[in-house]
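hey team, just a heads up i'm posting the complex here instead of the shared drive bc the drive is being weird again. everything in one block, sequence lines first with there labels, then the predicted structure for the whole assembly after. its two chains so it's a bit long, scroll down
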Amino acid sequence: MSWSDRIPKQIEEVLVQHYGVTHRRGFLKSAGLLAVSFSAFGSAAIREAAAQSGSAAQRPGPYHDPDFRQIDSWIVIHENNTATFYVGKTDPGQGTGTCFRQLMSDELDIAFDKTSCIMGSTDITVDQIGSGGSSAIERDSWPMRRVAAEARRVLLEMGSKHLGVPIDQLAVSDALITVKADASKRVTYGELIAGKKFNVTLTGNNINRVTGQAKTKSIPELKYTGQSLQRDDIPPKVDGSLKWAVDVKLPGMVHARNVKPPFACAKLTGVDESSVKTLPGFIKVVSKGNYVAVVCEREEQAIRAARQLKTTWEKPTTSPFPASENLFNYMRGATPTPGFRPVVLGNPDAAFSGAAKIIEAEYEIPFQGHTAFAGAHALADPSNGQMTVYTNDMKSYSMRRGIATFLDMPHDCVRVIWMMGPQGFGRSAAEDAAFEAAWIARQIGRPVRVQWMRDEETAWDTKSPAFLVKMRGALDRDGSLVAYDFHARSCDYNHIGYNEPDTVLIAQLMGSRRARAAAGSAAMPSDMYAIPNRKMVGEVVGLPTVWETPLRTGNLRDPNGPQPTFAAESFIDEMAAAAKADPLDFRMKMIKAGTNDDGGFRRARSIAVLKAAADTYGWDSRPSPRPTGKGKILTGRGIAYSFRGETVVAQIAEVEVNRETGHVWAKRLVCAHDCGLVVNPESLRHTIECGTLHGLSRAIHEEVRFDTEKVTSRDWFSHPTLRHADIPERIDIVLVNGDPNPNRPDLPPYGAGEASLKPMLAAIGNAVYDATGVRIRRVPFRDDRVLAALKAAGA
Amino acid sequence: VSKIELKVNGHSHTLDVEPSTPLLYILRNDLDLRGPRFGCGLGQCGACKVIINGTAVFSCITPVSSVKGEITTLEGLSSNGRLDPVQQAWIDEQAPQCGFCQNGQIMTAKALLDKNPHPTDAQIRESMNGTLCRCMSYFRVHSAIKRAIKTMAEASPAGGKEVVA
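-- predicted structure starts here --
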């Protein structure tokens, strides 16, 4: 039984009965809406609802940028001796907000549970970009730490004056300064500064360099850092009390829903407003260029009206893209954009001609969607001639700049209030709904909430670029990989940037065009393998149509990492198999032989994570594939390794492949992960675990399908994701510190939000090969694809 | 348009509403509840789930007029400031990442455990399978369910042997 069959029949009957909708079973999933009608509560009945905070909602502009060179922009100490930290980050659900509190509490010397952290709202927090690039702890926690350390220094100075005792005779703990010789002489931070400002100017020519005079503490001095403290965002997420961006309601607020073009590059030729004019709650159809939306008093009314609005569209004269089944043929034949030159090491041509064995292979990775759990959404309030946007956009600061430019408003008339929302893995850095809400709000002069529907989001969100990777490897007589040719081609020419006012979808639909869409990129694999002769090139091809298309690319978690890594780490396995070597030994040998890297730092850590993964799994050395079993279920194990920045990851998957159905189940996963200093081990483990499973989802489920004019993946069936039934029996996350000097007091933290996704696709593919002896060079490993490959190979 | 009576989390409400209105929008926009959320509007993801007569249902595709019985939302699971053991297990296991789906995870698990306090792993997988999570917090959700089973059994006078119908 497919999941859609579980939609209760009586619900469809109600719809038929009330609206005469002659839908089939499946209507609900294909139409993406319940055709519904509502009594007009009318604006009088719109419930008054608070904004994120009453004072925030009332405060008129202008909204100046908080000055990052002032301690007061980062830290406020209250009378009751508690502290609030203001940071320019957004926490997409990985516990970074709690980590910031741990680090800053340590530097400030205040009890962790006496602190709170406010993130990502442009008028009250400094611009640290928001989130992205796994930079929260690695880069952006440093200014926070330095400012907190400086605040502590200033408070000690104040305490010294207050108590009449030199600083070196004072002790400080839990925001309480005491005289070492007489603990009855004491003063709290709150008593020293509450109600006043620090008024201390910091130095540093940009936010990442901002600093005071104080030094940050060494790692052994950190008290909360390194502890698995519970995340502060979890209780309100569990008891229903958290106010999400979707929960903000403002007096007079109305709802809008978009009417998307039925196919890419469609030209709007007519809007028949009379088709919705008599619907309850109808306010207005707003349209410019090819952008259309309907505004109604109530949410369900807007949903219904947007579905019912009659519009006519003209098709483009040529197909905007090939159908998904022809994508890779198209990419093979397309002309790459100029400027991508190969990186050559040694003499690959000579090495290939002298090789004992040459292996060639080509790998395919389709477009994969961000498919955020809920559609893009935002509320824009045009009150007071300003524009306040409530959003879960992960990069609220670029959104503010983007919206100001898009609406041609002064920068300080716009503010973006960040609130929590569904994780979008980069989708919410190229936000659309907020631009739309702001534009409509200005048109109608009322607060407007926009939310994308499921079909709209899945079809029109940004996509991770498709990759075609051709590789060639040469083995010498000893079975060593002596030459390697890596040729990646990504379909990434219209890569959308962060909240750019000229590339966000509403701008495109209104006619905005850039001379050059985007450079795009085709990343190289990250590895430490000592291969003496290499030629590597990554080039970019574009689809025939770049603008106003649902096949627009964007940064999906570890952008352009999983695709080349799937290809490269699968191909290394192919080379190991050709050399009849154990895949782990084969990798280790090449890593250990390396000489030309960063003083051995990354090499030592690569060796450590591979060893940790193998030890945890209980890896026995043997070549792949294992002798094929006779039964219905074939079992195999696969390993893959990669790094992202300085974070090193090795993963092992054990899979069961059902020979009769082609179903692949990852029964056991191991991830060994070294990201330097660990701030919150449990929170980190959880993030790594979820990233690993995201990699599994991309390995076995995720793929965007399209015909020659539109994306046909429109819901959770046509763009599936991992489900409970797919979950491994066991997952081991191993936190490794493979630093050649593991006890050094200044071990820095590296990023952890994305790296665990990277090698997973190859680990699964290598395990499938180990189990079946069949190499499948195309993700996702869906049942039908695997079954066909097994049959073709006679396995 | 007709008057509809709804009982939600112990409170009665009378609403003038078109009978086919999906329950979700009434709960969110008229009753100001935040637990049930819009994820797909298709009954595919579970973000909107509420418990009615012991079953976790998709409020996004449930016409308000079809509701027979009291509705419990995420907010209604706790009583007198005490979290339900399922919610407490979610905190103890630190189950959520972004947390947007967790309403569906918790409500589905709650309905499952109320009917079957000792589900097998296979029953957990099957019962939870229509409740999606894009952060992939599934493994922790399973751990949380197992923890809730344990704490509920310990709290039960029959030592967890009693089956609640």
